[in-house]
Design brief:
Blueprint: E1 7-9, E2 12-14, E3 20-24, E4 31-36, H1 40-57, H2 62-78, H3 80-91, H4 95-114, E5 120-124, E6 128-136, E7 139-143, H5 149-162, E8 166-170, H6 177-187, E9 195-197, H7 202-210, E10 216-220, H8 223-233, E11 239-243, E12 248-252, H9 258-269, E13 280-286, H10 290-302, H11 322-337, E14 341-344, E15 359-364, H12 369-372, E16 379-385, H13 388-396, E17 400-401, E18 403-407, H14 411-418, E19 425-428, E20 443-444, E21 447-448, H15 453-458, E22 461-469
Parallel strand pairs: 7-8, 7-10, 8-9, 10-11, 12-13, 12-18, 13-16, 15-16, 18-19
Antiparallel strand pairs: 1-2, 3-4, 5-6, 6-22, 11-21, 14-15, 17-20
Helix pairs in contact: 2-4, 3-4, 3-6, 4-5, 7-8, 9-10
The structure holds nicotinamide-adenine-dinucleotide.
Nicotinamide-adenine-dinucleotide (NAD) binds near residues 173 and 225.
Length: about 475
């Protein structure tokens, strides 16, 4: 595998002129690559290239854009093995999950390709016609995190292109290599300057948020960074979609069939080693089933094979970076000191790599950090409740609201309760299931705006009302 380390600006490969930074393999702590961040002048070049390309790209036909997005999906498919290997090496997840991420990137690209941009007719009479069209915004800046780096880049870029925008994207400095490859593939299909990539951390992300030539920022990442972006975006009233952190609650209703749902709870809580924005991060269980749930989850956790994602048989990889690992350790230690009981896992694995085994924590309550804060790692606190209203109240007592779930054999009752949850998506008998056709976004401090579906596509457009007097 020869890894491309260059940025792509106006169809040309360029090496960053600012500071060098290393990309680490979290399973081995070895340096996978040393990259160079973009200078501010290079960011300006990328924005100028996107502005120039927008002049004609905005008038490309729907059919052309659809065809090009399908060609991009073909290229991702043709390079799936290499992309998956890059994702495992820099992100850490097991190979089967990296393959699923590449598959997701293909599915979302094809879905965006097939979307139509509606024209809404408000009035059509002998003397007047009023219609609402949806025009592209111009240059879209995409800033992505390190957990699902390839898929989230596609989530941002594919609909932006479909709607007729051009793009400057910046991957996380922790996982930039898959995005470099992706943009290289896209540039084999698209005219020069339509999609550009710059490298770097917060300094380049901050410069993008302030840049007068960028018309919208689509950001996926933490709430504090989202707040900074929102402040900077005020300078030219950039449009924003902010997909921020969550601390999703799941409620198991009494009389649930625990044997039937335990695997689903585990998978959605520990998806990507828990490093998933809409993972189940707090589980509320009725007194009557508390011990049974804890036991069932512990059994599944203990059956995981924790290791390097490239090794056959690995089901559970490392935490992606040391900062996140330390946060997990800190929250688990805090819980222990406050009387919580660790049922399995509970400490970093000795030796090389950022491994932390799947961990279930019992005897925890709201008010403890492991419940109140987003752990974004392989730990699930299980909280007892005695009546369902109390569980809903505890679930909603959070400043964030991305997802939530209710689990029960009584689907109608579960839906009633799910609708009381303060979150952007409420699942019944599931969690963390994001789909290309279902709008997804947060409420409260989890951000605003949605991705996916037609509602997601329209966030990359500006409505224009055309009022015609015949
Ligand atoms: P982060 O906010 O630290 O970084 C995300 C991106 O923002 C990176 O590319 C980073 O370089 C950039 N950045 C950092 N400082 C910046 C600044 N001042 N201005 C502009 N950009 C800046 O987040 P992270 O640690 O990479 O990701 C984890 C967080 O992301 C978690 O809270 C998780 O819940 C959230 N997340 C949310 C979703 C969602 O869809 N809602 C999806 C995935 C992750």
């Amino acid at each position: 595998m020869t890894t491309n380390l260059d940025m792509l600006i106006k169809g040309e490969k360029v090496t960053g002129q600012a500071a060098a930074f290393d990309v680490l393999n979290p399973a081995t702590e070895e340096v996978v690559a040393s990259c160079h961040a973009a200078s501010e002048a290079q960011l300006n070049d990328a924005v100028s290239a996107a502005q120039e390309a927008f002049k004609s790209w905005q008038y490309s036909t729907d059919d052309d854009r659809k065809a090009m997005l399908h060609q991009i999906a073909d290229k991702i498919e043709a390079n799936a093995a290499e992309l998956a290997e890059i994702v495992v090496k820099e992100q850490g997840k097991p190979m089967f999950l990296a393959q699923a991420e590449v598959g997701g990137a293909v599915a979302w690209t094809r879905y965006a390709a097939e979307l139509d941009i509606p024209v809404e007719v408000i009035e059509d009479t002998d003397t007047k016609r009023i219609e609402v069209q949806h025009k592209p915004l111009g240059v879209v800046g995409s800033i992505t995190p390190w957990n699902w780096p390839l898929m989230i880049a596609i989530w941002h870029i594919a609909p932006a292109l479909r709607a007729g925008n051009t793009v400057v994207c910046k991957p996380s400095e922790l996982t930039p290599l898959n995005t470099l490859k992706l943009i290289e593939l896209m540039n084999e299909v698209l005219p020069a300057g339509v999609v550009n990539v710059v490298l770097g951390g917060g300094e380049i992300g901050g410069a993008m948020s302030e840049h007068q030539g960028i018309n919208k920022i689509i950001f996926t990442g933490s709430t504090p960074t989202g707040q900074k972006i929102m402040r900077s975006a005020a300078s030219n009233l950039k449009r924003l979609t902010l997909e921020l952190g969550g601390n999703d609650a799941g409620i198991i209703l009494p009389d649930s069939n625990i044997a039937a749902i335990a695997e689903g709870i585990f998978q959605t809580a520990f998806l990507n080693m828990g490093q998933t924005c809409a993972a189940l991060k707090r589980l509320y269980v009725h007194d009557s089933q508390y011990d049974e749930v804890c036991q069932a989850l512990t059994t599944i956790c203990e059956a995981q094979s924790v290791g390097n994602g490239l090794h056959e048989g690995t089901t559970f990889g490392p935490v992606q970076n040391v900062m996140q690992l330390n946060k997990v350790v800190e929250l688990v230690e805090d819980a222990k000191q406050n009387g919580a009981k660790v049922l399995c896992g509970g400490a970093k694995t000795e030796g090389v790599g950022y491994f932390f085994p799947p961990t279930i924590i019992a005897d925890v309550t709201n008010g403890m950090r492991i419940v109140d804060e987003e752990q974004f790692g392989p730990v699930l606190p299980v909280i007892r409740y005695s009546d369902v209203d109390q569980a809903v109240e505890m679930a909603n007592s959070s400043s964030v609201g991305l997802g939530g779930s209710v689990w029960s054999t009584d689907v109608a009752k579960a839906q009633q309760i799910a609708q009381k949850l303060e979150c952007g998506t409420a699942w019944v008998n599931g969690h963390a299931e994001v789909l290309p056709h279902a709008p997804f976004g947060g409420c409260k401090m989890s951000g605003f705006g949605v991705e996916f579906g037609q509602a997601g596509l329209l966030e990359y457009t500006q409505p224009q009302t055309i009022n015609i007097n015949k």
